[in-house]
Amino acid sequence: MFTPAVPLGGYLGWRVFQNSADRQFEIFQKSPQIIRNMEHFRENIAEADTAEKLVDDRKLLTVALGAFGLEEEINKKAFIRKILEEGTDDSSSFANRLSDPRWRQFAKAFGYGNFTGANVGVPSFREQVANDYLERSFEVSVGEVDPNMRLAMNFRREIAAIANSATVEESGWFQIMGQKPLRAVMEGALGLPSSIGSADIDKQKDLFARKAEQIFGGKSPAVFKDPLKVEDALRRFFVQSEIQGGPTASTPGAGALSLLTGQGGGALSPNSIVNLFISNTL
Fold first, then answer.
1. Cys-Cys link to 211, which of 1, 96, 123, 190 (CB 3.0-4.6 A)?
2. By the 8 A CB rule, do 48 and 57 touch?
3. C-alpha 180: how far from its chain's center?
4. Helices assigned H by DSSP within 146-195
5. Distance between CA 213 and CA 277 in Å, rounded?
6. Rounded to the nearest 5 degrees, what angle is found at the Cα of 237, between the Cα atoms of 136 and 218?
7. Domains assigned to the chain
8. What is the distance in angstroms between the CA of the first residue and the CA of the last residue of the chain?
């Protein structure tokens, strides 16, 4: 399997990687395992006319889940089957109740539990899933060398889709908060601690919106329609990641940081952290 070249970390490394990413992707897509998986999917997915058949074929499921960034969930067969069989037409279906919108996208795309039925026999659907699997598999490969690079690649693609969606005003922040990879980058870009994830969901949304307005000039994720804002978010994410990896007990402000992040005694609760950040943005 091809191993991507990521010679430098941090934002500088990200900029350097961009110069060779297309060429590296061309080499990666010739990897024997990737070719075999995609060929198997194209040749056999039409026969998987039920969710049970898809889940029982590990090679098919590898591509299906990988196309949505869900490859790590492949061993949860009963969970996956339930999501697929209930579909998304019913607002109370399993996929619609999950916080991670990728499951809803996955169930809707395959269509097993929906009124219109499965899409596995549609040639354009097969090609789209196979191509998405290829793209995300490259990101996985990059992530094995540098996890932050994978997060950045995923963010650049997914944030654009959210920013340009018709529901961005109503559900944009919830979509970001529901996807761990997206959330990790956004928290870094906004300078927020990951511990706020345990706070009240509406308080979290309010905090994300306030910080986004302060830093990027808009409360809505629609602000990321601008590619320059996306790049600025990635720059801030990489810088924040380097900062978090570096402070020691002698670093100025380390005492306050330990209170916020829970290192040592007397840590603030998630809701207290949210309230503190909100108060500083008013």
1. 190
2. yes
3. 6
4. 147-163, 168-178, 180-190
5. 13
6. 100
7. 10-145 (1.10.3700.10), 167-244+265-281 (no CATH)
8. 51
